[in-house]
Amino acid sequence: MIFTFILIDKPDTQALRHRLRPEHKAYLGQVGQRIAFAGPLVADDGQTMLGSLLAIDFESRDAAHAWLADEPFTRAGLYGSITVHAFVNLWPQSAGFAPQV
Fold this sequence. Notes:
By secondary structure, the chain is an alpha+beta fold. The chain has helices at about 15-30, 60-70, 70-75; strands at about 1-10, 35-40, 50-55, 80-85. It has one domain: Dimeric alpha+beta barrel (Alpha-Beta Plaits, 2-Layer Sandwich). It is built from three helices and four strands.
């Protein structure tokens, strides 16, 4: 089942996010084949990162939470708010999902 992770950064953690981003991306790469979509939540300027939105296939909620517990941003205490929901995609994607490098 797909689980979505809505992860909002604590205030004034931009430097920590940028420092740990390579480790975070490498960790995501370990489940890359199971990612439906993933990327930073940003301010209206399109640049300032405010958190993360991830949708990843896991066998169970427990597996999703175990994965999140070992995620580098989580371990570093970056997130001020964490929400995990099961997700069922009922709409075919046609816009907004081309990866931006």
